[in-house]
Amino acid sequence: MKGFIREDRWCSLCGLNCGLCPMNLEGRCPGCGGGAGNQSCALARCSLNHGGVAYCIQCGEYPCARYEGFDDSDSFISHLRRAADLEKLREIGPEAYGAEQRERQALLLALLDRHEEGRRKTLFRQAVNLLDLSILRPILTELDAAEGLSRRERADLAERRFRAAAEQAGISLYLRRKAKK
After folding, report:
1. pLDDT class for 38, splitting at 50, 70, 90?
2. pTM for the full model?
3. Is 133 exposed, middle or buried (0-12, 13-18, 19+ CB in 10 A)?
4. Which of the pair, 181 or 126, is modelled with greater confidence?
5. Mean pLDDT along residues 22-48
6. What's the rounded Cα separation, in Å, for the pair 117 and 125?
7. Inter-residue contact 135 to 175 (CB < 8 Å)
8. What does the angle CA 56 – CA 54 – CA 127 come to, to the nearest 5 degrees?
9. Which residue in 122, 128, 117, 116 sits closest to 165, CA to CA?
C-alpha cells in the first residue's frame, strides 16, 4: 500500500506474531509488515486513516468491527494469543516485546535447524508462539542435550514435550480452520 511504512517487524498492527509466521520467515509476507511485498492488509489502510497508528491498540476505536470473528480461526499463524500479545506489548513496550519475539524466533529457528525432520514445522511454530518462554527454554535445552538420538527421535521427543506442556496449560497446538458456512 502506497505510503504505508512499518518499522516493527515483530508484531503486526493487529497483534499477530510476525517473527514466527512462515510467510515472514520465507520472505513472502503479504501483511502489514511486508516491506516491498504485497501490503494489501485492510488494517494497514485503516492505520493510515487513523493517523498512522503502529498498533491497533493505539486507536481510540479498538477493538472495532474489524475484529468481530477475527480470532475465531487462524491464518498462517495462530490468533489465540493475538489480543494478549497486544496487551503485553502495551505493558512492556515495543522494545522489550521485540526482544522477546527475537528470542522466540531464535528458538524456532534452532528447533527447525536441529530437531525438525520435515513433518513438524507447524507444530513447532505453534508451540513457540503459544507457550511461555519459561517452558520453551528448558525443552530446547533438553533436546540439545539428547545425545545418541536421531533427528527423528529428537523431533518425537520435542513433540511429546510440547504437547504435554500445552495440555497442562490448556492450549491446543493445532491451527484452527475457518468454519464452513
Report:
1. very low
2. 0.86
3. exposed
4. 126
5. 70
6. 14
7. no
8. 70
9. 128
Q: How far apart are CA 139 and CA 111, in angstroms?
A: 10
Of the candidates 94, 18, 91, 13, the one whose C-alpha atom is nearest the C-alpha of residue 56 is 13
Give the least confident one: 17-31, 74-88, 98-112.
17-31
Cα–Cα dist 101/141, whole Å: 18
Alpha-carbon distance of 163 to 135, in angstroms, equals: 12
Any idea which residue has 504435554 for its cell? 164
| Lowest mean pLDDT, pick from 1-15, 59-73, 87-101, 166-180 | 1-15
Does pLDDT of 124 surpass 80? Answer: yes
Span 57-73, pLDDT tens digits: 999 999 899 899 989 99
Is residue 17 helix, strand or coil? strand
Question: Which residues are CB-contacts of 70 (< 8 A; sequence separation ≥ 6)?
Answer: 14, 79, 82
Backbone φ and ψ for 11, nearest 5 degrees, come out as -140, 130
- Residue 116 CA to residue 105 CA, distance in Å, equals 15
Helix (H, G, I), strand (E, B) or coil at 13: coil
The counts of H helices and E strands in the chain are 7, 0
